[in-house]
Design goal:
The structure holds two protein chains of two kinds. In chain A, 0% of the residues lie in helices and 48% in strands. By secondary structure, chain A is an all-beta fold. In chain B, the strands form two sheets. In chain B, strands 2, 4, 5, 6, 9, 10 and 11 form a seven-stranded mixed β-sheet that branches. Classes of the chains: A mainly beta, B mainly beta.
């Protein structure tokens, strides 16, 4: 089974509108973390936002917020007021519990390609 | 803002040759990682490194691969006897701690095997 599922291979959004990118995850760990990264066409990976499994509040970072629904195992990224520069691939990733001393690797989803339309 | 630096940005190598990909993690970070992304696919974990030793490695990270932190600042990934299927973007990442802090990625090295 996939640990991270991003069901939207591609999304379109009108400039200045809000958009939600879906992410569901699968883990039996109690302690885990969820991350979103942005990958523009130039290829770099840019950290956007983090949500810990024990965090009671949804994470927010500027125009980015994370809609964390623990019971549903979903961690959707919401981008408000979309800008042309938001056009990129977006990856959801999970760090599972304490898998071993000094190892907290991320498992990535397949990504969603977001295109912002002027 | 401090950042992870990777060199070279693009490496072209003949099949069978050895390559070394270099990374300078953020200076106060303690956890180091290599990931790879084959064109059009998701990012895959290769190896993690902490306290001067490998802490975990994926099944991709076989005897062909090795990592080193030779001088306290650089973090290298060596690929011996490269194969066509090693062509990918290789990302180095580092984090201050492993649990709550994000992993910061470098801009990647695009490795092309001919």
């Amino acid at each position: 089974a996939q640990k991270i599922t991003q069901t939207q291979p591609g999304m379109f959004v009108q400039e200045k509108e809000a958009v939600t990118l879906d992410c569901t995850y699968d883990t039996s760990d109690q302690s885990y973390g969820l991350f979103w990264y942005k990958q523009p066409s130039s290829g770099e990976m840019i950290f956007l936002i983090y949500q810990g499994s024990y965090d009671e509040q949804n994470a927010t970072e500027g125009r980015y917020s994370l809609n964390f629904q623990k019971a549903r195992k979903s961690a959707n990224l919401v981008i408000s007021a979309s800008q042309l520069g938001d056009s990129a691939m977006y990856f959801c990733a999970m760090r599972e519990g304490l898998s071993g001393a000094g190892s907290y690797q991320l498992t990535f989803g397949k990504g969603t390609k977001l295109s912002v339309i002027p | 803002e401090p950042e992870v630096t990777q060199t070279p940005s693009h490496q072209v190598t003949q099949m069978g040759q050895e390559v070394i990909l270099r990374c300078v993690p953020i200076s106060n970070h303690l956890y180091f990682y290599w990931y790879r992304q084959i064109l059009g696919q998701k990012v895959e974990f290769l190896v993690s490194f902490y306290n001067n030793e490998i802490s975990e490695k994926s099944e991709i990270f076989d005897d062909q691969f090795s990592v080193e932190r030779p001088d306290g600042s650089n973090f290298t990934l060596k690929i011996r006897s490269t194969k066509l299927e090693d062509s990918a973007m290789y990302f180095c990442a580092s984090s201050m701690d492993g649990i709550n802090q994000p992993q910061h990625f470098g801009d990647g090295t695009r490795l092309s095997i001919l």
